[in-house]
Amino acid sequence: MEALINTIKSFIRLSPEEEQLIPPLFSEIKLGTGEYLLEEGGICRVIAFVSEGLLRFYTNNDGEEKTGFFSSEHEFLSYYPSFLTQTVSDKYIQALEPTKLLVITYDQLQDFYARVQEGERFGRLAIEQVYLSAIKQLDSFYTDPPEKRYQQFLDSYPKLVQRIPQYYIASYVGIKPQSLSRIRNRLAKKH
Amino acid sequence: MEALINTIKSFIRLSPEEEQLIPPLFSEIKLGTGEYLLEEGGICRVIAFVSEGLLRFYTNNDGEEKTGFFSSEHEFLSYYPSFLTQTVSDKYIQALEPTKLLVITYDQLQDFYARVQEGERFGRLAIEQVYLSAIKQLDSFYTDPPEKRYQQFLDSYPKLVQRIPQYYIASYVGIKPQSLSRIRNRLAKKH
DNA sequence: CGTTCAGTTGACTAAGGTCAATTCCCGTGG
DNA sequence: CCACGGGAATTGACCTTAGTCAACTGAACG
Q1: A78 C-beta neighbours (distance < 10 Å), count
Q2: Is B147 near strand D, with its CB below 7 A from some atom of it?
C-alpha cells in the first residue's frame, strides 16, 4: 500500500487527508500461478497495482495466443478498452507467478476523481503513460524486425527474462517459439 | 469553430461562459498539399482539430516511410509522445490536401484545463479515445495479416480511399506498394 | 509527343511458418 | 539413486509470403 501511494505521489500531490482516502478505495487480491484477473467474455472491472508477482496480458485468436505485455512489481495494469467503457473484452490477464494486487473498481475510481483535488489529473497522466508505452510498442511493430524486438525485450526487461518461459516471449515478439529459437541461435553465433 | 465546440461538447458539458473561452484559445492554421504540421527534429507544440482537409502521420526510417494513421475532417490530431512531454520528435505530420486546422498550444491547453470546470476530464477522455484507437491498431498488427489489414482499411475509411495514393496505403498496411498491388490482384480474382 | 511517376507484373531471394523428429531439463515414483 | 514421463526447447526439411530488383504499362501534363 505504501508503494502504491508513493507511485501515485510520483504523478500528483496528495494532501495528508487525501492520502487517508486511498487505502479504503483499494482492496487486495491474490492470484496463484495460472489464475486470471480477466478472462474472455468478462469485463475488466478494476485497475490493478502489482505489489508482488508477474502477469501477462494476451489474446486468443483461433487457439493461438498473442501476448501484448507483461506487468510486474509496482506497475499499474488493466485492460483499458474494457475498463473505460465497462464492456465485454476478448482478452486475458493471467498470473505467471503467485501475485498480489491492489485493485480499484470503476466506481471507486470515479470516487477518487471526485474527492482528490488532482484526481482527474492523475487519471489523465496515468493513461498518458500507458498510452505512450502502447505507442512505443506499435512503433516498434511497424519498424523493427523480430530479431531487434527480441533484443529490445532483453534490454528493457533483463530481470523478467528468467521469469518468463520462452514461448511467451516468442508470442510477445510476434513469432513462433521455433523462430525465436533460431534467432537466439543466430545471435549466439555472433558472439 | 462551431464543429470544434460541438466535438468538445460530445465529451463534456460546457457552460455558455466556458464556451466563450474556447475561440481565443485556438488559432487557425492553413497548410497546402505537402506542407508539414510537424517535421523530424521538431516538437509537436499543438493539438489540432481538422476543420478541412486530410493529413498523414508517418516516420522516416533510413529513407523508408511508415504511415501510422490518416486524419480527416472533425478529428483531433497530434503526436502525443512529443506534445505531452514537449520533447523533440522524429515523426512527421503532413497535409495530403489543402487543409485548415484549429490548433491549441500546450500552454493554452493548460489554461483550458485550469479554467474549464470539466477541462481535465476532457483531456482524460480525449486521450482515452486516442489511446483506444492506438490499441486497436496495435492489436490488428499483432493478429492480422496484411491482406486483412487492407480490407479493414477499406471498410473503415471507404471515403478516404479515393483521396489517398496507393503507396501511402501500402505503408499504412505495413507492406511495399508492389505487395499491395499483388494483394489487390488476388482480391480482385476472388470476385 | 515525350517526360514523369504511380501502379503493375515477373523472376528471384529472404525470413518466418509448419510439421515432425530429437534433445534437454526437471520432477516424480519405483 | 536411477529410470521414466512430459513439457520446453532445439533442429531439420519444406512451404508460404513479403521483399527486392527490374522491366513495363498507363495516365497526366506540359
Answers
A1: 26
A2: yes
Query: Any idea which residue has 476532457 for its cell?
Result: B122
User: Is the C-beta atom of B174 closer than 7 angstroms to strand D?
Assistant: yes
Q: Looking at A41-45, A48-52, A187-191, B16-20, which range is the least confident one?
A: A187-191
Burial class (CB in 10 A: 0-12, 13-18, 19+), A168: middle
User: Cα-Cα-Cα-Cα dihedral of B181, B185, B188, B190, to 10°?
Assistant: -130
Residue of A139, A149, A168, A172 to mutate, testing the B interface (most B Cβ within 10 Å of its Cβ):
A139
Query: pLDDT of B30-72, one tens digit each?
Result: 999 999 999 999 999 999 999 999 999 999 887 889 999 999 9
Statement: the CB of B182 is under 7 Å from strand D: yes
In the numeric block, which cell numbers belong to residue B114?
485550469
Nearest to B177 by CA among B68, B34, B67: B67
- The 10s digit of each residue's pLDDT in A81-130 is 899 889 999 999 999 999 999 999 999 999 999 999 999 999 888 888 88
Please give, one letter per residue, the 3-state secondary structure of A25-93: HCEEEEECCCCEEECCCCECCEEEEEEECEEEEEEEECCEEEEEEEEECCCEECCHHHHHHCCECCEEE
B131 → closest Cβ in A120, A121, A127: A127
pLDDT for residue A139:
82
* Residue ranges of B 117-146 with Cβ closer than 8 A to chain A: 120-121, 123-124, 127-128, 130-132, 134-139, 141-143
Length of chain B: 191
In chain B, what residues touch A123 (CB-CB under 8 Å)? 120, 124
Region B10-17 average pLDDT: 96
B60: nearest CA in chain A? Answer: A143
Closest CA to B84 of A72, A89, A96, A126: A126
Between positions 51 and 80 of B, the ones with CB within 8 A of A are 59, 61, 66, 68, 80
pLDDT tens sequence across B118-165: 999 998 888 888 888 888 888 888 889 999 999 999 999 999 999 999
CA distance B171 to B160: 15
Share of chain B above pLDDT 70, in %: 99
